[in-house]
Amino acid sequence: MDNEKSFIALIEKSIKKHWDANSLTDYKGVTYQYKDVARKIEKLHIIFEESGVKPGDKIAICGRNMSHWGVTFLATVTYGAVIVPILHEFKPDQVHNIVNHSEAKLLFVGDVVWEGLDESAMPGLEGVILVNDFSLLLSRTEKLTYAREHLNELFGKKFPKNFRKEHINYYKDSPDELLVLNYTSGTTSFSKGVMIPARALWSNMMFAFGALTMKKGDRLVSMLPMAHMYGLAFEFLYQFCAGVQVFFLTRMPSPKIILQAFAEVKPSLVIAVPLIIEKIIKKNVLPKLETPTMKFLMHMPFISDKIRAKVREQLMNAFGGEFYEIVVGGAAFNQEIEAFMRSIEFPYTVGYGMTECAPLICYEDWKKFKAGSCGKAVDNMEVKVLSADPANIPGEIICRGDNVMLGYYKNEEATREVLDADGWMHTGDLGVIDENGYVTIKGRSKNMLLGPSGQNIYPEEIEDKLNNMPYVNESIVIQALDGKLAALIYPDFELAFANGMSEKQVEEQMEANRVAVNQQIAAYEQIARVKIYHEEFEKTPKKSIKRFLYQEAR
Q: What are phi and psi of 230, to 5 degrees?
């Protein structure tokens, strides 16, 4: 079956194999075993069938992570329909547009999201179902109304002598068949519908089986949005196929809630974006090491080794203490934080991917991982750098293989811009690749700026230095209309005010930071001025800043 690159076969096999094992848990709430999930899938299949949904039809879902979100995804693809995951943080107009553009027949929606939506703005929908309890919020057909009202009766007729694993016989997918239509909220432009085929999901799963260490009975805390491919593939789908119990936070994943969940669940693997790791280390670990006494002790070899071991142990315990590694992806990692993690031999690794590759392009196990890189090409994928000297001169990263999308939905022009005639996906990312295949990202080609004499300036590298300066939360470096560079900075006002600083002193500190960073970078990269922001910058699901929103600050 694996040779057929069938993703749905992996789901069917896992349900049958792990029938009595715990599967999906709402943190501080209900737990469903695989057999419970299977029963719920069958009930949704009955609703789909009775209401006239056909294989290939689109079914959208928009709500916070929860067990029923996972059930809806599994029920949709195993029926042969196409799932359209929509980020619950999107504005109502964005949700309306995606539902309409995708031609979704049904919408599963969370209670909070539903409050802001206008059903009259989505005329093509035949019904809206509340994902929290699968109750019917809106029905525009008698068939759907009948199916929901008589669901238990219909289920009883279909399985008169109890529902068993032998009854499971899901839709048979083909490798290039569309399974997921995932709308990005890219940092540089408006959303596009990425068409993800069965082979891309299958390939990501097969790689995970070989590269990751999870097995039946292991646990994982899901904190990334499942409407985004990174969270969907590696905090839910891989775990479901491997017999792992997934705990959904079902609420805003603040550092406090995340640390509490880690302490209770003790996950076997941690999947994260850099922002979460950086916040925990910056707030909870680094301040303790900045005291004069600690700085002195860190310079004494024997004591420093003991201190590093102690810090490593404390940081391991913060994430539950029982995980094999932390996989970081979705955005660039802060170099100072990464160097600190290397110095205490912390088990982390950085991967690289994008929605268009469902999502993996590069990865390496933490024991072999090269610092500063994002790993090597994963199984079933090739990676190249378009450069005269790929090891030393940055060029565009391109990739080809099973993970690559079919294209953008109803947008052939955008598809042609990134997928060439030979099947290479042009990522828009700039990087280098060494003789061993390790890829190091330098930045986005669309973000790259030109210096006064045509030099390439990578704003992300300057931002990385700025973000390590005192009282800087985050920053964006842009090119002003006069050609000079400006730094937009969101300071850590909370910490500054707690330390007795006034707003004027915060401004003076940001100016001092500008001067300090300019001493570390080339003459053509100099920051001419600073603009302070009082709210954090808007971000994508991967917690990358939506840079295109801030170009007017020039």
A: -60, -50
- CB within 8 A of 367, min separation 6: which ones? none
Convert 15-31 to b/e letters by CB count within 10 Å (16 or more is b): beebbebbbbbbbeeee
For residue 554, the model assigns a pLDDT of 54
Q: What is the arithmetic mean of pLDDT over 473-498? A: 91
Mean confidence (pLDDT) of the chain:
91
> Is 201:175 a contact under the CB 8 Å cutoff?
no
Amino acid, res. 304: S
What is the model's pLDDT at position 35?
A: 98
Please report how the helices 274-284 and 301-318 are oriented relative to each other, as an axis angle in degrees rounded to 10. 120
pLDDT > 90? residue 460: no
Q: Is the pLDDT of residue 71 over 60?
A: yes
HSE-up (13 A, CA, CB side) for residue 113 = 29
Query: CB–CB of 134/68 below 8 Å?
Result: yes
pLDDT of 451 > 50? The answer is yes
Cα 394 from Cα 396, distance rounded (Å) = 7
Q: Which of 191-195, 212-216, 478-482 has the lowest mean pLDDT?
A: 478-482
* Structure token pair of residue 116: 């802001």
Q: Token pair of 225, please?
A: 């949005």
Question: For the chain, what percent of residues have pLDDT higher than 90?
Answer: 72
Cα separation, 327 vs 350, whole angstroms = 6
pLDDT in tens, 116-156: 999 999 999 999 999 999 999 999 999 999 999 999 999 99
Which ranges in 442-544 belong to alpha helices (H)? 459-466, 493-498, 503-518
pTM, rounded to two decimals: 0.85
What is the set of domains in the chain, with CATH numbers?
Answer: 2-16+32-173 (3.40.50.980), 449-553 (3.30.300.30)
Alpha carbon distance 261, 286 (integer Å): 22
Number of Cβ within 10 Å of residue 523's Cβ equals: 9
Q: Which residue has the tokens 């992300």?
A: 460
CA angle 53, 58, 59 (to 5 degrees): 85
Q: How many CB atoms lie within 10 A of CB 552?
A: 7
The number of residues making up the chain comes to: 554
Single-letter code of the amino acid located at 169: N
Percentages helix, strand, coil for the chain (3-state, rounded to 5) are 40, 25, 35
- Going by C-alpha positions, the residue among 155, 206, 205 that lies closest to residue 45 is 155
* Contact status, residue 418 vs residue 192, Cβ threshold 8 Å: no
CA distance 269 to 255: 17
- In degrees and rounded to multiples of 5, residue 400 shows phi and psi of -150, 145
315-344: pLDDT as tens digits: 899 899 999 999 998 777 778 888 889 989
CA angle 5, 227, 146 (to 5 degrees): 90
